[in-house]
Design a protein that fits this description.
By secondary structure, the chain is mainly beta. It has a single domain, classed as OB fold (Dihydrolipoamide Acetyltransferase, E2P) (Beta Barrel), CATH 2.40.50.140. The chain is about 0% helix and about 25% strand. The chain is built from one helix and 17 strands. β11 (about 145) and β12 form a beta hairpin. It is globular and about 70 Å long. The mean pLDDT is about 95. One of its GO terms (molecular function) is rRNA binding. Part of the 50S ribosomal subunit. Forms a bridge to the 30S subunit in the 70S ribosome.
Length: about 270
């Protein structure tokens, strides 16, 4: 993993830091694993804008990623590590012994030619998916299920990882990337190793246009708005804008929005850090 700092040939390149793509082995995606991806521009089914600052961006095709890893006890060979425009992590194309090809989220250290597998009989090695009951305590894991058979929903972003802390009865204690410690059923699958592309956090876009390529539109500062447009708007001169809050009045910066009556609260041992 590496990053490259560009020479300032243009103003937009002066502070630009780009990914070295050392671990990416091909730029040609597998056609059978591609699907069309429609842009919503932040509009719902009625055409009303429900999410601001969305729209435009480069056209993409979705890579069908196998988050469930339900093809168990069948070895697969890693054919290539690829860039995925729809996520921060790199993806690996694996080919099973029966010839089927699938994309999976690549872990740090996953190499072309390596064999990966999933299931209770898989070894606890990088890239293998095992139930939490079969993973040694203290292991770094990622791509964790929350319900058995649901598919990975936690620790899927670039460079993220969780740690298996303990097991008791039908629950395992997992420390998540947010700092939260929670109980997860031991028959949920998790993948060994941290997610690839850990240098993603070091990247610097260098110019505003790059945000537009990613489908992000300009954002107006709330304190520059009028009172009719935002709770923090208005005031004479450069008024601070009052307490930080969102456009619909929900306080920001530390205000907890999780419901106190949520049924899954009993599985959370320690809340995430502020």
């Amino acid at each position: 993993m590496s990053v490259r700092k560009l020479k300032p040939i243009t103003p937009g390149q002066r502070f630009r830091v780009v990914n070295g793509f050392d671990s990416v082995t091909t730029d040609k995606p597998e056609k059978s694993l591609l699907a069309p991806l429609k842009k919503s521009g932040g509009r719902n089914s009625q055409g009303k804008m429900t999410m601001r600052h969305r729209g435009g961006g480069h056209k993409r095709r979705y890579r069908i990623v196998d988050f469930k890893r339900e093809k168990q006890d069948v070895a697969a060979e890693v054919k290539s590590i690829q860039y995925d425009p729809n996520r921060t992590a790199f993806i690996a194309m694996v080919e099973y012994a029966d010839g089927e090809k699938r994309y999976v989220v690549a872990q740090n250290g996953l190499q072309v030619g390596q064999k990966v597998s999933s299931g209770e009989n898989a070894a606890p090695e990088i890239g293998n998916a095992l139930p939490l009951s079969n993973i040694p305590l203290g292991t770094i894991i990622s791509c964790i299920e929350l319900r058995p058979g649901q598919g990975a929903v936690m620790a899927r972003s670039a460079g993220t990882f969780a740690q298996l802390m303990a097991r008791e009865g039908k629950f395992a204690t997992v420390k998540l990337p947010s700092g939260e410690t929670r109980l997860v059923l031991v028959n949920c699958l998790a993948t060994i190793g941290a997610v690839s592309n850990s240098d993603h956090q070091l990247l610097v876009s260098g110019k505003a246009g790059r945000s537009r390529w990613l489908g992000r539109r300009p954002r107006t500062r709330p304190v520059a708005m009028n009172p009719v447009d935002h709770p923090m708007g208005g005031g004479e001169g450069r008024a601070s804008g009052g307490h930080p809050r969102s456009k619909n009045g929900i306080p920001a910066k530390g205000f907890r929005t999780r419901s106190k009556t949520k049924s899954t609260n009993r599985y959370i041992i320690e809340r995430r850090k502020k």
